[in-house]
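Action item from last meeting closed. Structure (163 res):
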């Protein structure tokens, strides 16, 4: 019995040691200097003027991980997350195998997000360079973490730049 416990414990320690740096990792890449997002979520028109995240170059693609927040901190912590991998303007393929593209709305302890194979969402980039991205999104059918239908996220207009 002792021989089984020790290797299992050792494996758990190695896994934990590998996971800790990932948990502490911040968004990487060149951070955006300015950004803006307007949208309708759960029948409320919202404007977020603060953007965080980063732009990275990976094998000829740009990956933009963007977190939009309101300029004035509301009572409920809310933010809009966009993860985009692109080479040029156009429609973002959310259904591609191994896609990192996605959109999610976080608010007051809940998450509403695009779920591949279940949700209905289109994201279109009107500007897409290694240092700038802008576009639109319309997600009439989204889901929460448990897979239940959630509030729609529509009329999304966003932009972010490192300049």
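Sequence:
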């Amino acid at each position: 019995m002792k021989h089984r416990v020790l290797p299992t414990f050792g494996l758990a320690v190695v896994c934990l040691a590998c996971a800790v740096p990932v948990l502490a990792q911040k968004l990487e890449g060149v951070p955006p200097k300015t950004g803006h997002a307007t949208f309708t979520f759960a029948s409320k028109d919202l404007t977020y003027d603060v953007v965080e995240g980063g732009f990275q170059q990976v094998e000829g693609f740009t990956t933009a991980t963007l977190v939009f927040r309101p300029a004035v901190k509301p009572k409920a912590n809310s933010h809009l997350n966009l993860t985009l991998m692109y080479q040029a303007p156009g429609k973002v393929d959310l259904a591609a195998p191994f896609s990192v593209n996605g959109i999610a709305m976080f608010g007051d302890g809940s998450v509403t997000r695009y779920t591949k194979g279940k949700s209905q969402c289109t994201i279109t980039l009107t500007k897409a360079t290694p240092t700038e991205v802008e576009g639109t999104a319309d997600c009439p059918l989204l889901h929460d973490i448990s897979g239940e239908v959630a509030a729609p996220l529509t009329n999304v207009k966003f932009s972010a730049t490192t300049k």
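Note appended to the action item: Helices lie at 2-24.
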